[in-house]
Amino acid sequence: MLTPASFLLIGYFSYNVFQEAANALFKEKKIKVDILDIGVVLLTLLFGQIAAAAFMVWILDLADMLLQKTTKKSRQYITDIFGEQPRYAWLLVDETEVRVEVKDLKQDDIVLVGTGEQIPVDGVIIEGGAMIDQQSLTGESVPADKHENEQVFATTVIVAGKIKVRVQETGKNTLASQVISIINEASNYDVRLQSVGEKIADQMVMPTIGLGALGYATVGPGALLAIINADYGTGIRVAAPIALLASLGNAAKNGILIKHSEVIEKLKDIDVVLFDKTGTLTKEVPTVSKIITADETYSEEKILFCTATAEQKFSHPIAAAILEKAKKENIELAKYDESQYHVGLGIEVEIGQDWVKVGSSRYMESENIEIPEKIKVALKETGDRGQSAILTAINNKVAGMIELQSTVRDEAADVIADLRGQGIKEIVVISGDSEEPTKELARQLNIDRYFAGVLPNEKADYVKVLQDECKKVMMVGDGINDAAALSHAEIGVSLKGASTIAVDVADVIFMDGTLLKFHYLFEVAANLQENVKRSFLMVAIPNTVCIAGAFMGLFGLKASLVLNNGFNLMAAANGMMPYTETPEKTDNKIEEKRKESTSELESKENKSGVKKLIKYIYIHK
Q: Rounded distance, CA 14 to CA 153, Å?
């Protein structure tokens, strides 16, 4: 009774294997590695090797269970990055704190969160201030200082402080939940190298069966069983998805959200990186470049004082730049009566005994304020350079002008040098600005080509221009104005981070809004490719040795089972290695790349005797 019972048990536990083989043979009409797996089971039974058949079925089930468990663990690992969503929150009801379940909160409810507590919702601070650890979402290790009217997100933790938050989103609608959902969706894709490994394994089925028949004819049944057990596919099918999930989770932990895993494979084929200029290569907040007085009546300090005082209620980039300049100059701003503060095309406010108006030249003209010739000339020069300016009038007379210029991100030059070190052949910038400032930025950052005066709806056309040159394009933009261009490029990268993640069409999002994540993005891709290749070699080499050993009479079925499946498990363990990987210090690596790039350029310059090594190609519409 033992043998029939064994047959029944083996048949029961190998049902899934039989089903996969039947699907491949009858539905897909393909000879796949699943057929080889079931062939090993049937042949071992045919030759009376019941223990070997049972071991083979156990190994196949173990591999399937291992993949399922590690997939579940990987998903849990990704979820754990953001922490568990808090179940309870302190709801403010008539100035009384009431403990309620988060799922019962509604939009516009007010919740109170204090030091050491996890923020339970996405919302806006309406009162108080706090230092908030946002590393789970942005990858920033330094806590962010948050105050009134600023956004906060669920799963982030208050390091110090206390805030009242107006609820915007809860549960599955929070940013953290959307991030987890996107990563899990991305993890459903196979790595192309995994597909290549399976394809090779499938292609090896018939040759393996042929070699098995040859082994049977020349050596005997032991060689046949040893050879057909040498399965090239099982190990890589388990190891590659584990490595992919681990890499996606590790990237998210370090502030890079990869929404589509195909990005990792596409990276090595990118020829061109196309940067949007404003807010990407340059900072969103400009800087005050100069202050020009209309005459000797008012000093530069007086103009800055009046302008900054008028702008102090605003948070737009121009106001931020002026206020930052006043802060650097240690200028103390005045207070004024809000009832005498008017906003239209410009700002009008009473400061002391003076009426101050701040705005564009058009605003001054609409107020019938004459613009002095000196200021008109300065405005034209500023416009020719592609910069902006605002005018300040005191008591209906233009007192002066403040010029603002866009500021290049501190890391931009080094990141561009690093991209060249990663194998990117061409760097291009696209901008809605006029030609002169775009041309100057291209010169300043050693950018190969620029497109100037481009409207947002035209940016996708320029992606197409580059693609028509047979180039693979990575577009880097802000995720909203550049939506069409981002979706047309082979890879779209957004620096906008959390504020636009729900509607962002980009494939990759740098959650902290800086360019420095580029180095780690390439590092993640390179490490994953290397990991999958290593796993494939772990599977391929021992199986090849096993086949050769079977022909020499050195290996039988038992040795083949141990060798093949032992290395399959090692390949699976190798797939989990990305869990332990930490990114190299990005700024240091970029600095090294920059030095290498600079050294290489200097070497070429010395050899050629030519002052300028890079010929900039400027194309504009």
A: 48
**Res 26: pLDDT:** 78
Q: Work out the burial of residue 317: count CB atoms within 10 Å of its CB; fewer than 13 is exposed, 13-18 middle, 19 or more buried.
A: middle
Strand 354-359 with 388-394, pairing: antiparallel
Q: Rounded to whole angstroms, what are the CA distances from 520 to 161, 258, 487, 493, 583?
A: 33, 12, 22, 14, 6
Q: Say how far apart CA 607 and CA 267 lie, in whole Å.
A: 33
Q: Is-contact 186 258, C-beta < 8 A?
A: yes
pTM more than 0.90 = no
The total of other beta-carbon atoms located within 10 Å of residue 294's CB is 22
CA 557/CA 80 separation, integer angstroms: 43
Query: Which residue's entry shows tokens 């050769």?
Result: 548
Count the neighbouring beta carbons within 10 Å of the beta carbon of residue 449: 18
Q: pLDDT tens across 143-198, in order?
A: 778 889 888 988 888 888 899 999 998 887 887 777 677 666 665 555 555 555 56
The H or E element spanning position 427 is strand 426-430
CA distances to 271, 327, 329 from 308, rounded to whole Å, are 45, 9, 11
Sequence-ordered list of residues with C-beta below 8 angstroms from that of 420, at least 6 positions apart, any chain: 427, 593, 597
